[in-house]
Design a protein that fits this description.
Layout lengths: L5 E3 L5 E4 L3 E4 L8 E3 L3 H5 L1 H20 L6 H6 L1 H16 L14 H17 L7 H27 L6 H24 L1 H31 L3 E2 L2 H11 L4 H4 L3 H21 L3 H27 L2
Antiparallel strand pairs: 1-4, 1-5, 2-3
C-alpha cells in the first residue's frame, strides 16, 4: 500500500469510528503480515551490506565500461521492479528459510531484484556492445522472463486461487487518469512534459497506481494503512461529509496526484543533466510502482 507499511489480514475486524466509516483496528488484526517496513534494514545489517556491495559493483562496472543511465535504460529496469514486488509477495505466502526472508522483505527486495537484474544485464547482455535501446530491451526482457516463474511458483506453492478483477480495476483507473492528467499538463505546460519525458509520465502512473490500489485495499478489502501520514490523511477524509459516499481513501488519491506532479515539475526544471534526471525520476517512479505492484499481485491471490 502507500508508503512502506501495510498490515494485511484474511479477515480484518473493523470498527465504526470517525463519522460511522468502518476502520480496520490494528490492535485486533489477526494473521498479520507486515509489508515494507524498514525493520529488515536495521535487523539484518549483513544482508543489507551484502546487497549494497552487490549494487555498488554494478555501478562500478558501468563506470568502467562507460555505461550511463539513459531514459531507455531506466525504463528497461521497470520489469525488475515488478520482479521485486513479486518476490516480496512470494516471501509472504510461501514458507522459506529464515536466512532468505530478509532478501525478500521490502525495501531490501528492491536491492535484491536490482542486483540480480543488473548483473544479468552486464554479464549476459553485453550492453557495452549494443545501442542504448538494445541494452534497455535486453534488461526489460530478462526481467519479464524472470517474473513469469516467480508468479507461477507463488500461485502454485501458496495453493491460492487467482482473482484478478480488482487488480484489473486498479490498473484501468490508474492508466485512464494518468493519460487524462498528463494530456492536460502537456497542453498547458509542455515544457514540463517535454523535459520529463516518458519517465515523468511513469512517475504519475506509478503513484496513481499506488493510490488506486490503496483505495481498493482500504475501501473495498478493509485493509489497514499503517504509514502514519497516509493514515492521517484517510482518517481526516473519514470525518468529511463525503465519507459515506466516497469512502476514506479518495483524498489520499488526490494527494498522491499532487505529489507526483510536484516531483515531475520540480525535477524537470531543477536537473539539467538528462542522465541524472533519468535516475531521479526513475527512483521516484519506483517508489510508486513498487508498493503498487506488490498490492496488485497480492490482491490477485487474496
Amino acid at each position: 500500500m502507500s508508503g512502506y507499511e501495510l498490515l494485511l489480514s484474511g479477515a480484518v475486524p473493523r470498527s465504526t469510528e470517525l463519522g460511522g466509516v468502518a476502520l480496520p483496528t490494528s490492535g485486533d488484526l489477526g494473521g498479520l503480515v507486515l509489508v515494507g517496513s524498514f525493520d529488515p534494514v536495521l535487523m539484518h545489517p549483513f544482508h543489507t551490506l551484502a546487497l549494497l556491495l552487490a549494487v555498488s559493483r554494478i555501478f562500478v562496472l558501468m563506470k568502467a565500461r562507460n555505461l550511463y543511465a539513459t531514459e531507455e535504460l531506466v525504463i528497461g529496469f521497470f520489469p525488475w521492479v515488478a520482479v521485486a514486488a513479486a518476490l516480496s509477495v512470494f516471501g509472504q505466502v510461501v514458507v522459506l528459510p529464515e536466512q532468505v526472508i530478509p532478501f525478500l522483505s521490502s525495501p531490501l527486495v528492491y536491492l535484491t531484484a536490482f542486483a540480480i537484474g543488473g548483473h544479468l544485464w552486464l554479464h549476459l547482455a553485453a550492453p557495452d556492445r549494443r545501442s542504448s535501446r538494445e541494452a534497455a530491451e535486453s534488461v526489460a526482457l530478462s526481467g519479464i522472463l524472470f517474473l513469469a516463474p516467480i508468479a507461477g511458483a507463488t500461485i502454485a506453492l501458496s495453493g491460492r486461487e487467482v482473482h484478478p478483477l480488482w487488480s484489473l480495476v486498479a490498473v484501468l483507473v490508474a492508466v485512464s487518469l494518468s493519460i487524462l492528467i498528463w494530456a492536460y499538463v502537456d497542453q498547458f505546460h509542455p515544457g514540463v512534459t517535454g523535459n520529463a519525458g516518458l519517465l515523468g509520465f511513469a512517475v504519475l502512473l506509478g503513484h496513481l497506481l499506488d493510490a488506486s490500489t490503496t483505495l481498493i485495499g482500504i475501501d473495498i478489502f478493509g485493509l489497514a494503512e499503517q504509514t502514519p501520514l497516509s493514515r492521517d490523511i484517510m482518517e481526516f477524509a473519514a470525518t468529511l461529509p463525503t465519507a459515506d459516499l466516497l469512502g476514506m481513501a479518495w483524498l489520499f488519491v488526490v494527494v498522491k496526484v499532487l505529489i507526483a506532479l510536484g516531483i515531475v515539475y520540480v525535477f524537470s526544471h531543477a536537473i539539467t543533466d538528462a542522465r541524472h534526471r533519468s535516475i531521479v525520476l526513475g527512483i521516484a517512479a519506483t517508489t510508486g510502482f513498487g508498493p503498487a505492484l506488490h498490492n496488485l499481485f497480492l490482491y490477485t491471490i487474496l
